[in-house]
Amino acid sequence: MILREAYARALKDPDLITEVDRSRLDMEPSTGEEIQAPIKALMEQKREVIERVKKLLEN
């Protein structure tokens, strides 16, 4: 919770916004809640799936 709050505050920081604008970057950040679900689903994969992905990534 503390990290999410700090992240949210940082995204509103005028200096950060100015730097992003100056760098001509797009800033469309996701919240922790938006990112949590797919990461949780990824982490809860069966061992067989993880092992198969490891083999695919080795090639």
Explain the overall architecture.
The protein has one domain. Helices cover 75% and strands 0% of the residues. The chain has helices at 2-11, 14-23, 32-43, 47-58. The protein contains four helices and no strands. By secondary structure, it is mainly α.
Short précis:
The protein has 59 residues and is mainly α.
List the helices and strands and how they pair.
Blueprint: H1 2-11, H2 14-23, H3 32-43, H4 47-58
* Radius of gyration from the alpha-carbon trace, in angstroms: 17 Å
Q: From the helix content, strand content and strand pairing, which structural class follows?
A: mainly alpha
Beta-strand share of residues: under 5%
User: Regions with pLDDT < 50 over 5+ consecutive residues?
Assistant: none
Q: Please tally the helical runs, counting DSSP H or I stretches of 4 or more residues.
A: 4
Overall pLDDT:
90
Note the run of SSEs as H and E: HHHH
Please tell me the total number of domains.
1
The number of distinct β-strands equals: 0
Anisotropy-based shape? elongated
Percentage of residues assigned to helices: over 70%
Largest sheet features: none
Ends apart, CA distance between termini: 39 Å
